[in-house]
Automatic annotation (TrEMBL):
<dbReference type="GO" id="GO:0046872">
    <property type="term" value="F:metal ion binding"/>
</dbReference>
<dbReference type="InterPro" id="IPR052347">
    <property type="entry name" value="Isochorismatase_Nicotinamidase"/>
</dbReference>
<dbReference type="InterPro" id="IPR036380">
    <property type="entry name" value="Isochorismatase-like_sf"/>
</dbReference>
<comment type="similarity">
    <text>Belongs to the isochorismatase family.</text>
</comment>
<dbReference type="GO" id="GO:0019363">
    <property type="term" value="P:pyridine nucleotide biosynthetic process"/>
</dbReference>
<dbReference type="InterPro" id="IPR000868">
    <property type="entry name" value="Isochorismatase-like_dom"/>
</dbReference>
<keyword id="KW-0662">Pyridine nucleotide biosynthesis</keyword>
<feature type="domain" description="Isochorismatase-like">
    <location>
        <begin position="6"/>
        <end position="199"/>
    </location>
</feature>
<keyword id="KW-0378">Hydrolase</keyword>
<dbReference type="GO" id="GO:0008936">
    <property type="term" value="F:nicotinamidase activity"/>
</dbReference>
<protein>
    <recommendedName>
        <fullName>Nicotinamidase</fullName>
        <ecNumber>3.5.1.19</ecNumber>
    </recommendedName>
</protein>
<keyword id="KW-0479">Metal-binding</keyword>
<comment type="pathway">
    <text>Cofactor biosynthesis; nicotinate biosynthesis; nicotinate from nicotinamide: step 1/1.</text>
</comment>
<dbReference type="Pfam" id="PF00857">
    <property type="entry name" value="Isochorismatase"/>
</dbReference>
């Protein structure tokens, strides 16, 4: 067991982000065994779960004439439009069956308000509405995070950037993440995280 001040943050390892899912990330399911194995090395494990109501504003289906992966200006800034995914209670929103969810101390659900998306485990996409994760970690005395999961360039990226910004010593295990890679977004995310002081391992 490593130090009690370090948690493993497992981002969105759900069926809709795995091959065959609504927003499939290439090789998304390949990382599951490695994540399960890594859990053994951690005192604390936190999972996030993308959890949208039907008709969520980030779904292209809610915007007439718009296609998935187009970008639209939302009140809080540019928002990528996605295929309908991770709808509350659906099979696609479930964690991969092989993921060892028994080890989770906490499951943070995000994206549950219709009008606002939430990539980061810490803040919704307005970058100011907190999920409560920061308080949870701090009150448990956790100051270091290792991040894994899906997708490298969206939810992992935004979670790691916020974690670093909040002062957590943050590492992303790139081998246990997979990316969507929209127009070079994967490289941009890796560069941005490094610049923000996130260790890419
Ligand atoms: C994610 C797009 C939309 C992710 C979630 O988990 O990276 N990406 N919702
Ligand atoms: Zn989502």
């Amino acid at each position: 067991m490593p130090a009690k001040d370090t948690a493993l943050l497992v981002i969105d390892v759900q069926y809709d982000f795995c091959p065959g899912g609504a927003l499939a990330v290439e090789g998304g399911d390949e990382i599951v065994p490695g994540i399960n194995a890594l859990m053994e090395d951690f005192h604390s494990v936190v999972l996030t779960q993308d959890w949208h109501p039907a008709g969520h504003a980030s779904f292209a289906s809610q915007h007439e004439g718009r296609q998935p992966l187009e970008v639209l200006d939302f009140p809080y800034g540019p928002q990528v439009l996605w295929p309908d995914h991770c709808i509350q209670g659906s099979r696609g929103a479930e964690f991969h069956d092989d993921l060892n969810t028994d080890r989770a101390d906490l499951i943070v659900r995000k994206g549950f308000r219709r009008e606002i998306d939430s990539y980061s485990a810490f803040f919704e996409n307005d970058h100011e509405t907190p999920t409560g994760l920061e308080g949870y970690l701090r009150t448990r005395g956790i100051s270091k995070l290792v991040c894994v999961g899906l997708a490298t360039d969206f939810c992992v990226n935004f979670s790691a950037l916020d974690a670093a910004k909040l002062g957590f010593e943050t590492t992303v295990r790139q081998d246990l993440c997979r990316g969507i890679d929209l127009d070079g977004s994967l490289q941009a995310a890796l560069d941005g995280m490094k610049e923000a002081g996130v260790a890419i391992a």
